[in-house]
Write a structure and sequence with these properties.
- Keywords: ATP-binding, Glutamine amidotransferase, GMP biosynthesis, Ligase, Nucleotide-binding, Purine biosynthesis.
- Pfam families: GATase, GMP_synt_C, NAD_synthase.
- The chain has helices at residues 12-21, 34-41, 65-68, 79-87, 177-188, 197-212, 225-238, 256-267, 278-285, 291-313, 325-333, 351-355, 368-377, 382-385, 405-424, 479-490; strands at residues 2-6, 26-30, 45-48, 74-77, 91-93, 99-107, 123-130, 133-136, 142-147, 154-157, 162-165, 216-220, 242-248, 272-276, 316-320, 358-360, 433-447, 450-463, 471-472, 494-499.
- By secondary structure, it is of the alpha/beta class.
- The structure holds xanthosine-5'-monophosphate.
- Xanthosine-5'-monophosphate (XMP) binds at residues 343, 345-347, 389, 391-393, 433, 467, 504, 508-510.
């Protein structure tokens, strides 16, 4: 395994991800507790992350001495490079200006990190983000790559197997970065690269058992990939100490409740409470048109219902959530700065404090595609694993204006036709998310010989890597007209269909 010492970079989890991609197990430990993690793990290699501090400052984070003295291969990234340099006897200077963003490095010498990848004389794109820089190498080091702003873009001490770079190999903007990290893990540390999701599953199961003991756990199941995978994994770990709660507020898609209840209760035999709270939600949504008011009402009502069910079960000490790493980054980067709330996202946030429960979040280190891989590993059916994301407030935020049961029913039908056509055309997996939006606008149409005066439905489909940015999906020419015709013919209440071409930014994916 590899130990990643975290100096507080925003992208440390990406280092772990790249190492997992190379088929090697890794763990991240904050620099303060890295020495203990080192003793416990007995790793075969060390990666030192970037971080916001300046090694020039006296009280800045340091690499624990036992790690420095271990004789293990080390890879220092950005702050990690500077800490290595300073602690091994070189000089780091506070930069005037620094380098941020795309940069190019010139490969000046061979290096074990370049195996099968780069050769001397080549120039390669990397991603820089640093203020300070190495001014004088520590004894034993030689430069192997340089950039305009960083003469020591990559340095190496071959005898001690210590490599360090000023840029960030873990981000996608360093196109060959994943391979550099894989070379470190496999060629330098000599790890075989046979770690897989199967091992992650086994390790997490052991961890969950250890954390939970004989206590009860409840899990809010939405039917989405994240909560489904979390529930399955936890059930595998602790069996019927887990109870799932599935709240149906009448804002789910067609067939969703049946599918979720059928799979979890029927197929997996996991204790599941199916709460039929349609009336409660619809009554509360009556007259509410402001998007934030809808979101807040739904979030709060969900918590109320969940809490009531948890009380009935009694004695649950833990709340399970399918929190992913991107959720963690977003919430971290939103603390401390004066940031604007674009939308109040709803998951079961707020519950743990209110109910005084401890959290079980087995997916916290993973990215969406890794959760999908874990879902497959756990045998979750493809229709669940590959599902498009669906927001907590559900159809309510796809009905601008007032939400009523009638409008939810109309939208459900139209949405189901749209998705059925997308699946039939083999396009489902090429799209990040596709859905219909029922507009509070009526237009005139003619059907048969009669005049109609009905609602407009907007169709949306986007491609995206992480939901943070998105582009409208381009359907083949005859697809949208066919779907429009089907919807208008089959869904009473809709007589016009339009397509949304807005990208994000400036739009958002959902309409509210
Ligand atoms: P926006 O509309 O902000 O959406 O561009 C980005 C992604 O997040 C989903 N989304 C939500 N997911 N609770 C969720 O769990 C929410 O309240 C919520 N609001 C938006 C949205 O569907 C898209 O995938």
């Amino acid at each position: 395994s590899i130990l990643i010492v975290d100096f507080g970079s925003q992208v440390t989890q990406l280092i772990a991800r790249r190492i997992r991609e190379a088929g090697v197990y890794s763990e991240i430990a904050p620099f303060q507790s890295a020495a203990e993690a080192f003793t416990r793990m007995a790793p075969k290699g060390i990666v030192l992350s970037g971080g916001p501090a300046s090694v020039v400052d006296e009280d800045s984070p340091r690499i624990p001495q036992e790690i420095l003295d271990s004789g293990l291969p080390m890879l220092g990234i950005c702050y990690g490079q500077q800490a290595l340099t300073r602690q091994l006897g070189g000089q780091v200077e506070k930069g005037a200006g620094g380098e941020f963003g795309e940069a190019f490095i010139d490969i000046g010498a061979p290096c074990a990190l370049f195996d099968g990848l780069w050769t001397q004389g080549e120039r390669h794109q990397v991603w820089m983000s640093h203020g300070d820089h190495v001014a004088e190498l520590a004894p034993g080091f030689r430069p192997v790559a340089t950039s305009k702003g960083a003469p020591f873009a990559i340095i190496a001490d071959d005898a001690r197997r210590i490599y360090a770079m000023q840029f960030h190999p873990e981000v996608v903007h360093t196109p060959d970065g994943a391979k550099l990290i894989a070379n470190f893990a496999r060629h330098v540390c000599g790890l075989t690269g046979d770690w897989s999701m199967a091992e992650f599953r086994a390790a997490k199961i052991a961890e969950i058992r250890q954390q939970v003991g004989s206590a009860k756990v409840i899990c809010g199941l939405s039917g989405g990939v994240d909560s489904s995978v979390a529930a399955l994994l936890i059930h595998e770990a602790i069996g019927d100490q887990l109870t799932c709660v599935f709240v149906d507020g009448g804002i789910l898609r067609q067939g969703e409740a049946e599918q979720v209840v059928g799979l979890f209760r029927g197929h997996y035999n996991i204790p599941l409470i199916h709460v039929e709270a349609q009336t409660l939600f619809m009554n509360g949504l009556a007259g509410v048109t402001d998007p934030e008011a809808k979101r807040k009402f739904i979030g709060k009502t969900f918590i109320d219902v969940f809490e009531a069910e948890a009380k009935k079960i009694g004695g649950a000490e833990f709340l399970a959530q399918g929190t992913l790493y991107p959720d963690v980054i977003e919430s971290v980067s939103f603390t401390g700065g004066p940031s604007v709330t674009i939308k109040s996202h709803h998951n079961v946030g707020g519950l743990p404090e209110r109910m005084n429960m401890k959290l079980v979040e087995p997916l916290r280190e993973l990215f969406k595609d890794e959760v999908r891989a874990l879902g497959r590993e756990l045998g979750l059916p493809d229709v669940f694993v590959g599902r498009h994301p669906f927001p907590g407030p559900g159809l309510a935020i796809r009905i601008p204006g007032e939400v009523t049961k009638e409008r939810c029913d109309i939208l459900r039908k139209a949405d189901a036709i749209y998705l059925e056509e997308i699946r039939n055309a083999g396009l489902y997996d090429a799209i990040w998310q596709a859905f219909a939006v029922l507009l509070p606008v009526r237009t005139v149409g003619v059907m048969g010989d009669a005049r109609t005066y009905d609602s407009v439905l907007a169709l949306r489909a986007v491609t995206s890597v992480d939901g943070m940015t998105a582009q409208a999906f381009s359907f083949p020419g005859d697809f949208l007209p066919r779907v429009a015709t089907r919807i208008i013919n089959e869904v009473k209440g809709v007589n016009r269909v339009v397509y949304d071409y807005t990208s994000k930014p400036p739009g958002t994916i959902e309409w509210e």
